[in-house]
């Protein structure tokens, strides 16, 4: 799969936007309507590319002062060409509606934004426009409450929240009333984007939403009506949830095997996968588990309490003592909130320190997580680390600055193996899984 970054600019003049019909001389999408577009060369800033292309393709020399809005990059996969286009959208104010075309286009039109759906365009031009022309969609109190539920949930992991996001997307779909297919698709994409953005460090949520949206868009391409598209989403969400549960069970089975040759284990934070694997293994072998508290919200305490109900001998330790206990155990293991395409792992703050301590002690460090958690987005962008309320760490002097970054990144060279539903894989294998998953996804 080839990844290409492009800048796509829309010029606006007196309430209309400019679109251009690509000529037969260009290499891709001949005859399709587009914005002003051009490849972003290595070392070039997207805005500089946009301004350069506007001058070349329209004859209008404008500067940064004409910039009205910059949109979030839109990933668009073209399976016919096996290319992932990373589109950087811009909106500029045009000084006039008189332009001069170059060889790349055969004609142009100034249209109202809502008229774009009437044209045969390059892939996802309408979505690109929506990145710089805010949607008028307003959400009900109920749908806003669902978003807040996901955003503020500090109890569950990314796998659980991905499942919850799938259920919420179905609820949002079912709530849509009184519009045509175009309205429904716009609404669903808008809400899916809100869900995907709710927890930027937990990309399993976006993976789930992008996969389900992909199935709906396949139905949309076949001209299904609103009711049929709603049923597609219900059916696909049900199948996805079943597949997710089965992947979790297989992941637990594989993870339990790594404890069979160990008697002492060190873990950090709370992972359902690690918890169930330890419980399963403890029914066959004697295990002693050291669990760090995982401050500031002490997920490790909850993990230790659950393990204490099983046959494991459990010891709760402080985060600061991870280095000490790494010398006393046979292996270290954690779950993951996100696995990046390069094999690095995003997990609760302190995971990186555990991995470093394990490396220093020549200790195997495993990560147990389903491939659902491999963030497709990390193929083309850096993962984001959520920052939470400083009050979770300290309440006192207002003049004292407190940072509460909730997740850290553990690089792949510190990870012995990733244990997933397919067994034990090298961290670098995450790239292949990310590429395959991306091909069936539709990023909102």
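^ structure tokens above, recovered residues below v
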């Amino acid at each position: 799969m080839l990844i290409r970054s492009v800048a796509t600019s829309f010029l606006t003049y007196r309430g209309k936007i400019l679109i251009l019909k690509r000529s037969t001389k260009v290499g891709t999408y001949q005859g399709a309507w587009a914005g002003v577009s051009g490849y972003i060369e290595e070392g070039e800033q997207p805005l500089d590319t946009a301004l350069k292309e506007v001058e070349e393709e329209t004859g209008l020399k404008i500067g940064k002062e004409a910039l009205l809005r910059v949109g979030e990059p839109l990933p668009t996969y073209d399976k016919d060409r096996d290319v992932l286009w990373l589109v950087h959208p811009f909106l500029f104010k045009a000084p006039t509606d008189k332009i001069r075309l170059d060889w790349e286009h055969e004609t142009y039109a100034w249209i109202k934004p809502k008229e774009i759906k009437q044209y045969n365009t390059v892939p996802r031009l309408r979505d690109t426009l929506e990145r710089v022309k805010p949607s008028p969609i307003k959400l009900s109190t109920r749908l806003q409450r669902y978003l807040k539920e996901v955003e503020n949930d500090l109890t569950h992991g990314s796998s659980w929240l991905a499942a919850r996001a799938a259920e919420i997307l179905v609820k949002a779909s079912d709530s849509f009333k009184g519009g045509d297919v175009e309205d429904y698709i716009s609404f669903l994409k808008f809400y899916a984007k809100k869900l995907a953005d709710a927890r930027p460090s937990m990309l399993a949520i976006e993976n789930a939403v992008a996969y389900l949206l992909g199935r709906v868009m396949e139905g949309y391409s076949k001209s299904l009506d609103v009711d049929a598209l709603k049923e597609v989403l219900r059916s696909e969400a049900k199948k996805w949830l079943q597949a997710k549960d089965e992947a979790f069970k297989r992941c637990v089975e594989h993870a339990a095997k790594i404890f069979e040759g160990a008697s002492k284990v060190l873990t950090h934070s709370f992972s359902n996968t690690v918890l169930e694997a330890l419980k399963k293994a403890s029914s066959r072998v004697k295990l002693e588990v050291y669990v760090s508290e995982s401050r500031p919200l002490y997920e490790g305490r909850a993990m230790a309490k659950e393990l204490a109900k099983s046959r494991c001998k459990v010891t709760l330790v402080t985060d600061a003592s991870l280095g000490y206990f790494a010398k006393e155990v046979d292996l270290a293991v954690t779950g993951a909130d996100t696995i990046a395409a390069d094999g690095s792992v995003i997990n609760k703050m302190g995971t990186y320190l555990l991995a470093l301590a394990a490396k220093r002690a020549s200790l195997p460090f495993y990560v147990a997580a389903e491939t659902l958690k491999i963030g497709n987005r990390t193929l083309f962008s850096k993962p984001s680390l959520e920052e939470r309320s400083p009050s979770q760490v300290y309440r006192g002097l207002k003049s004292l600055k407190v940072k509460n970054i909730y997740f850290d990144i553990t690089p792949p060279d510190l990870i012995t193996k990733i244990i997933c539903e397919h067994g034990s894989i090298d961290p670098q294998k995450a790239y292949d899984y990310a590429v395959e998953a991306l091909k069936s996804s539709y990023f909102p």
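The chain has three domains: 2-132, 141-247, 252-439.
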